[in-house]
């Protein structure tokens, strides 16, 4: 399972570089061993600031988009010492952004995508990779840097594949997709050899499992090992629910059953928040013109949304997701209340300009 660090040092964004395939047995060995000796913690978090408008420059970084942009600037400046310090502080404190997402998740989001992330060109990807490789060279024992490299390759792989149906992907797109996912696995296995461990390692491996279409028992084992490592890391639950969608590898209703399972297992207000988070992952796969989300309790979704507000403060992204679900399920008063908070702050990952405008008018109508 030991891979040469030098195997990654010369990698560029070449479009046709052959990559050796890593056996699934080697990968699963790393999955099973990564959590050994890891101390587990209570899921219940500290409350994050709830104010919508920051009262100081420091408060600004409690908001996900602002925090990601802040991290991106640090990365572009090559201040890897500050990135290392921020990552370690976030792992130890389990600090959360407003709305409940771990700051650690926001940190990785801020460094793995090109700054022109909506329409990155080849040079943008090259520059991002060069920056991450400089980080690794400066801190060769950094788990954060190598996991960032792995996540970069998963994002870069999907850029080659595209977001369409599988029959729309070109032969060259599939080839690059597979090569880059292999590079992601290589980086993860190298990170697994380091003394420093990080919860995000499992998140990136879940990205790999989705990309490769792992057998469901292996994907479930990966999820269980991730939760064993850190039960409070929200992204594990959203990633596995996404894997269980019928568009990927699950059966109809399976992701919804998973939401119920987790909310009952965790219990209390935190279990309610997990139900909302998984529901929003499922709902965002439905077009506004399709049927409402099946087999989900709207009352439990609303309960989870309220629990997020109480525990972590109100966040624009969560409000956008809630408004989207309120429309799908025909709850105009709930949607109207969410839009009172959202105002003009549309989240592009939730809906288009036209969808946002249409639903806002619908919610406002008596």
Give your account of this protein's structure.
The chain has 18 helices and no strands. Residues 1-15 and 39-58 have low confidence and may be disordered. Helix 8 runs antiparallel to helix 9 (171-192), helix 10 runs antiparallel to helix 11 and helix 17 packs across helix 18 (353-364). With 366 residues, the protein is mostly helical.
Q: How would you concisely characterize the structure shown here?
A:
The chain is 63% helix and 0% strand. The protein is mostly helical and 366 residues long.
Helices and strands, in order, run as HHHHHHHHHHHHHHHHHH
- Strand content of the residues, in percent? under 5%
How does the overall form come out from the CA principal axes? globular
Chain-averaged pLDDT: 86
CATH class of the domain at 44-212: Mainly Alpha
| Fold-level CATH name of the domain at 44-212 | Serine Threonine Protein Phosphatase 5, Tetratricopeptide repeat
What is the level-2 CATH architecture name of the domain at 44-212?
Answer: Alpha Horseshoe
- What's the end-to-end separation, in Å? 63 Å
The total count of strands amounts to 0
Specify the number of helices.
18
Question: Level of helix content?
Answer: 55-70%
Low-confidence stretches: 1-15, 39-58
Radius of gyration, in angstroms, nearest whole number: 20 Å
Q: Helix/strand-derived class?
A: mainly alpha
- Biggest sheet layout: none
Which properties best describe this structure?
mainly alpha, 0% strand, globular, Serine Threonine Protein Phosphatase 5, Tetratricopeptide repeat, 366 residues
In terms of topology, how is this protein built?
Elements: H1 6-9, H2 24-34, H3 57-60, H4 64-76, H5 80-93, H6 103-112, H7 122-138, H8 143-161, H9 171-192, H10 200-212, H11 216-229, H12 234-243, H13 254-266, H14 268-283, H15 298-312, H16 316-328, H17 332-342, H18 353-364
């Amino acid at each position: 399972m030991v891979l040469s660090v030098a195997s990654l040092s010369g990698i560029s964004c070449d479009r046709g570089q052959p990559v050796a395939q890593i056996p699934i047995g080697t990968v699963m060995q790393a999955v099973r061993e990564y959590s050994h000796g890891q101390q587990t913690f209570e899921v219940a978090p500290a409350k994050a600031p709830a104010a919508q408008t920051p009262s100081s420059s420091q408060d600004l970084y409690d908001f996900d988009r602002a925090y990601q942009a802040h991290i991106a600037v640090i990365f572009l400046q090559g201040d890897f010492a500050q990135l290392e310090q921020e990552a370690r502080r976030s792992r130890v404190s389990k600090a959360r952004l407003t709305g409940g997402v771990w700051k650690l998740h926001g940190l990785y989001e801020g460094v793995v995508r090109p700054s022109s992330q909506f329409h990155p060109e080849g040079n943008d990807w090259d520059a991002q990779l060069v920056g991450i490789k400089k980080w690794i060279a400066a801190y060769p024992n950094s788990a954060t840097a190598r996991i960032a490299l792995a996540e970069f390759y998963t994002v870069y792989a999907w850029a080659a594949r595209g977001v369409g149906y599988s029959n729309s992907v070109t032969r060259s797109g599939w080839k690059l997709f597979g090569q880059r996912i292999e590079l992601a696995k290589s980086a993860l296995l190298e990170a697994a050899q380091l003394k420093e461990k990080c919860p995000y390692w499992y998140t990136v491996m879940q990205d790999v499992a989705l990309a490769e279409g792992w057998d469901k028992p292996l994907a479930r084992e990966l999820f269980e090992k991730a939760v064993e490592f850190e039960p409070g890391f929200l992204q594990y639950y959203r990633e596995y629910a996404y894997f269980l969608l019928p568009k990927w590898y699950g059966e109809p209703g399976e992701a919804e059953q998973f939401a119920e399972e987790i909310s009952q297992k965790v219990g209390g207000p935190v279990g309610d928040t997990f139900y909302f988070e998984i529901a929003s992952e499922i709902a965002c796969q439905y077009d506004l013109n399709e049927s409402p989300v099946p087999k989900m309790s709207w009352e439990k979704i609303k309960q989870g949304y309220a629990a997020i507000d109480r525990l972590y403060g109100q966040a624009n992204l969560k409000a956008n997701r809630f408004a989207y679900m309120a429309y799908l399920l025909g709850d105009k008063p709930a949607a109207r209340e969410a839009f009172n908070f959202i105002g003009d702050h549309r989240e592009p990952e939730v809906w288009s300009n036209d969808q946002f405008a249409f639903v806002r008018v619908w919610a406002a109508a008596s």
